[in-house]
């Protein structure tokens, strides 16, 4: 109860303090002799307003000490790591210096022995001796034999080439044959065109196609061998029928 009411500003014992104050005032008026020993001459009066609560200190020192100890251990570890690295670098430098000194101290390689010159001279002399024909044999017989061999090989090649089947290049051509007017007999004109016969020419299908104003044209196809029949030959032969044909146009030309 006292701890709970420590911070309250209510003065519960005011009556006691008032009576003590009156007694003290009377004692001062009557003098020191009239004051009875039983009555208290003075009492410490303290107002609850002047009483300050006791402050308790928080334990901060323990946390700071732990932090300082942790920093000291980390510092020791860093120092140890730095010392290890320094020692390793010194070892590497020492090793590199030893290797460099070993390279400089190594003896120079001995030069390769010179190749014997006498053997080369002997070989050259033997080659020169082989080139000399002591018996004086002529090369006419060898030339004749080589010519015979060449002729035989050429004949065999020609025979082999003749046996191979030759590929004949062919093409399909579609022609438009136009008459002079609508009175031209297209059936007779077609028969005239088909009457053109030569080696390497084969006529195909045909049809009548209207142009305009009642005029029609003949469209006819054929297969030709490229080496034997050309488009110029076909145009000249068809336009030779002047009474029926006005012009000839090539509609399509495809290789087979």
Can you tell me about this structure?
By secondary structure, the chain is an alpha+beta fold. It has a four-stranded antiparallel beta sheet, with helices on one face. The protein has six helices and four strands. The radius of gyration is 69 Å and the shape is elongated. The chain has helices spanning 14-30, 61-105, 117-131, 140-163, 186-194, 231-239, and strands at 170-179, 201-212, 215-225, 245-255. Among the domains are: 71-98; 170-255, 2-Layer Sandwich (Alpha-Beta Plaits). Mean pLDDT is 77; it is low at 33-58. Strand 2 (201-212) and strand 3 (215-225) form a beta hairpin. Helices cover 46% and strands 17% of the residues.
What is the secondary structure topology, with strand pairs?
Layout: H1 14-30, H2 61-105, H3 117-131, H4 140-163, E1 170-179, H5 186-194, E2 201-212, E3 215-225, H6 231-239, E4 245-255
Antiparallel strand pairs: 1-3, 1-4, 2-3
Domain Translation elongation factor EF1B beta/delta subunit guanine nucleotide exchange: 170-256
Biased composition (Low complexity): 32-63, 105-116
Biased composition (Acidic residues): 126-146
